[in-house]
Amino acid sequence: MKKITKEVLTDAANRLLFTMSDEQYAKLEDEFKILIKQMEKIGEISDLDRYEPMTFPFDCTTTFMREDVPEEPLPREVALKNAGSKQDEQIKLPKVVL
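^ that's the sequence the OP posted. Answer follows.
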């Protein structure tokens, strides 16, 4: 396993396009140390590879589903009526990718 260092965390942060303070990096390193200890403890469980990974801790079955009822979409005028910003008959959203 790759050792989690400030350099590794800085590289990951840069790839995700955000920065952190030295204090935040130190806290994150400490949290990773705890996480790695927990993962090592789990790894000590004998015959762990015999068990199927869990995606949810409880058995949950769906015994019913609502009926799919096709409906007409809203008319454009109604959908745009309360939009704060519109452009070319569409709702204009702020840019989220740099």
